[in-house]
Amino acid sequence: MAIPFTYVVRNLWTRRLTTALTAGGLALVVFVFATVLMLDAGLKRTLVTTGELDNVVLIRKGSETEIQSAIARDQARVVETNAAVAIGADGSPLASKETVVLISLLRRGDSRPSNVVIRGTAPAGLALRPQVRIREGRVFRPGTSEIIVGSSIAARFEAAALGSRLSFAQREWTVVGIFDAAGSGFDSEVWGDVDQLMQSFRRTAYSSMVVRLADSARFDQFRSEIDADPRLANEAKREQTFYSDQSKALSTFINVLGLTLSIIFSIGAMIGAMITMYASVANRVAEIGTLRALGFKRRAVLGAFLVESLLLGAVGGVAGIALASVMQSASFSTVNFQTFADLSFRFLLTPAVVLESMVFAVVMGLIGGFLPAIRASRLNIIDALRTNIGV
Amino acid sequence: MFVLRLIARNALRHRLRTTLTVVGLLVAIIAYGLLQTVIDAWYAGAQAASSTRLITRNSISLVFPLPLNYEARIRSIEGVSMVARSNWFGGIYQNPKNFFAQFAVSPNYLDLYPEFVLSEDQRQAWLRDRKGCLVGRQLADVYGFKVGDVLPLRGTLFPGTWEFVVRGIFEGSDETKITRQMMFHWDYLNETLRKSAQQRADQVGIYIVGVKSPESAPSVARAIDATFRNSLAETLTETEQSFQLGFVAMSNEIIAAIRIVSYVVIVIILAVMANTMAMSARERVAEYATLKALGFRPRFIALLIFGESAVICALGGGLAIASMPYVAAAFKHFAGEYFPVFEVSFLTLGLQAACALVVAAAAAVVPAVRAAQTRIVQGLRAIG
Fold first, then answer.
1. Is B369 on the interface with A (CB under 8 A)?
2. Which of A15, A60, A112 to mutate to test the interface with B (most CBs of B within 10 A)?
3. Are B60 and A332 an interchain contact pair (Cβ–Cβ within 8 Å)?
4. CB–CB contact B159 A62 (8 Å)
5. What are A41-85's pLDDT values in tens digits?
6. B53 in a domain, yes or no?
7. Complex confidence, ipTM
8. Is B327 in the A-facing interface, judged by CB distances under 8 Å?
9. Residue B314 is part of which domain span?
10. Contact indicator for B328, B348 with CB cutoff of 8 Å
């Protein structure tokens, strides 16, 4: 027969301070663990939503990012006329030839400039990214020095408010609109007219191209045609793959650093749980003896103490996740090591993160409580009953 | 003496509990020290920067180059002693994961960097070989490069596979210098571009400007930028240190996060330590009451508890500080790729000691106050 659950709960409740301190230590570790997972989930979400499934990005072979890449005008024309490219309502191919460079801008409350992606595009580029919506103002007019900025750029960079002027490449550019890109990577970009930007940056070649496929299933054929064409030196990737590849280094870094820290910290918290559980056993030697004398099996005693430590872990887990959920309102921005550009993303609490954090918390509790529970179950009845209380 | 013995005996009464607490403290304080050192390592590049070097780059951003003819114009500015060229190459060695810096530099580059020590033979060998390159000691150790090795790089900015021959391995003048980089001839890059991509030739990524005296650096920087104002490629000139700090600043939220987390670990261990002290004090309520009945003041009881906390924290903290050099060496062995410079500073050791002290004091406050205030009769009646 098992020892009643209420007995276990009451034991934790009687020693409130100790329970709170131990669970608090566990909660902090769970907090660190959960925020790391949330950060990674946020980064992945941001970069996956940046890509549309049917869109294909083309860059120069050997390049890793749009910044490094170059596509000549004649090459762009060859790609545009491929049969796999969808045709828009106006009869022209759904393709956007773009120039992507970095400019230095000052962040709000920061004396040092950060690199921001500025993308030269055309109305077709906006049509290819349905998630991009103008929130304030209007779209830039082609052929003018007008630019629009992503919502996280507008929020974080002083000079990027609606109506303000940015000066770079010997020209003044007016911010005429702020767009919202549904939390995707485009929120961290500035967009303008491709021809105007290329002229001011004195570039003769595009950086990259985005095309919409008429039929998603034709991707492999499209890619091999691009590969095989001797006029081209380009590489085609699905937009989603392209953007998630770009976050690999940052994602690995966040994971390695965060998980290493969580594991080191968890040693501290598990030791805390172990101290608490050993004390819990030591304080109740006579009680355990009585339970055994009443006929409860060793297994039942072991179970009761394991449940107690498990509960301790669970309390820490819930508190840690509650603490971490507060972080959802915060956003995080850093330089992406692969593109050298500033990227901002949110802490995202997904069901998977909750589950993993809870499992982590319970496992910490169990490991901390395992040895003490064994000691409790091994106690000899006679010795235990003879023991003075409080030793 | 008697007090000290009593405190020591108290601390050792529960061997297992004390051992566990000390181990917890050890882990936490080492973790704190490592995190502080990671932050230091982040700033290592800026720390090593010289005050007599300026970096001139395109004011739009680093992506845009500067024309080659700027070199002569910068050299003619008052206070400039030397001008070197450097282009970021951005090649991939075997796998994108093997990231290290590669620069195409002019031959006088090394004169501006006295902290890179290279033997005269190797220097001559490099100068004589157009395809020759130099690698730093840290880089050579990671990939096992030796003089005479062929080092192929796949260009991401400059298409094609480029082959270089290692002609020399330079050392850092001391431990804090980052030598995890590779340099080759700017002329080799430029001549290849003249053949393959004419419009990209004769362009320089950044100019490194040596100034005659550190005091004149700000005025020289202003003079350079003034020279090229309203030209096709406006420049931004800053000291090497602020140039490096610009890179650090781009990831400053990561650094802020590491900083916060390094304090979280202290709070975690504070919870563990406070728990230990609370349990010990609760078990000894009757004992403390007896001491009070014998005539000891409440202050004495508080002293006992603070002393015990201090003994345990001193053990944990002392062990942690003593083992820091070994832990740092082990960490460097595993993560040297990311942190070429990983030196534990005295400040870090001091902070670790301070943390142990704070934890010791904070953990003992509540139990000490409680024990001091408990009335004798209540205390004697208490059971564990």
1. no
2. A112
3. no
4. yes
5. 999 888 888 888 889 999 998 888 888 899 999 999 999 999 899
6. no
7. 0.80
8. no
9. 2-44+252-381
10. no
| Same domain, yes or no: B157 and B211 | yes
Q: Are both B153 and B189 inside the same structural domain?
A: yes
Instruction: Please state the pTM of the whole predicted model.
Output: 0.83
**Which residues 131-160 in chain B show a CB within 8 A of chain A?**
154-157, 159-160
Task: Answer yes or no: do A265 and B63 touch at CB < 8 A.
Answer: no
Give per-residue pLDDT as tens, B59-73: 888 888 999 999 999
On whether residue B244 sits in a domain, the answer given is no
Nearest chain A residue to B285, by CA: A390
Backbone dihedral region for residue A390 (phi beyond 0: left; psi -120 to 50: alpha; all else: beta): left
B330 touches chain A (CB under 8 A): no
Q: For A130-167, how does the pLDDT look when each residue is reduced to its tens digit (9 = 90+)?
A: 989 999 999 999 999 999 999 999 988 888 889 899 88
Cβ contact A8:A307 at 8 Å: yes
Question: Does B182 lie in the same domain as B136?
Answer: yes
Q: Does residue B241 lie within any of the structural domains? A: no
Considering CB atoms only, which of A62, A114, A264 is closest to B155? A62
